Amino acid sequence: RGLNRPGNKGREMPARHSRASAAVSSSRAVAAQQPQPTAPVVSQRLCDVLLSFPAAAIGGVQWQVLVRKYEERYSTRLDLRDLGHSTPLAAATALLWDVARVIDVEDTDNPIVGVEDAVALTPQPGVLGSWPSLYSVLCELVCTNGNSAAPSSAAPESQQVCTAPCLLLSQLRPLMERHWHTSFDESALGFLNEEGSFLKLKKMKH
User: What does the alpha-carbon distance between residue 182 and residue 174 come to, in Å, rounded to a whole number?
Assistant: First the structure.
């Protein structure tokens, strides 16, 4: 009967809170102690994270920012020495050799890396590191499927200018699915800025 008294319930709360805190700490400890993945797995994961940065296709991404987002996404620490690399520059060169290029090597502890042009120009839905491929197809679609609006005759001659082709947003998605990638979905697009903060694109309105 004593267990049903309000006073006893109140005294149980700290114990439950302590057990919950211990469970959270334990789960974090387990995550921190996860074994280092093999080099091919680390390489693929780093590539996936790098492609989340639109800047990877232009000026590049700082290695330290890339590693921080890698560790956050996969809940594991990137141990370069365990992979056989003495410096971040050596690791970046070896782990990303087939998809990325080192743009700035002035700071060997924090080189700037970016994706190769061929990678940036390959359609890859869901990642905006390949935005050049999306942009290229978008320009072509507007030019080939858009309608040019004629200048208004009511406007003064000095203000009459030829307008570029226009394409309704309601027409864009099916065209992108047909000519860019079948999995194109603007509502699922998000990206990491140069500091590593995640930003989500707003859905296109018709």
Answer: 9
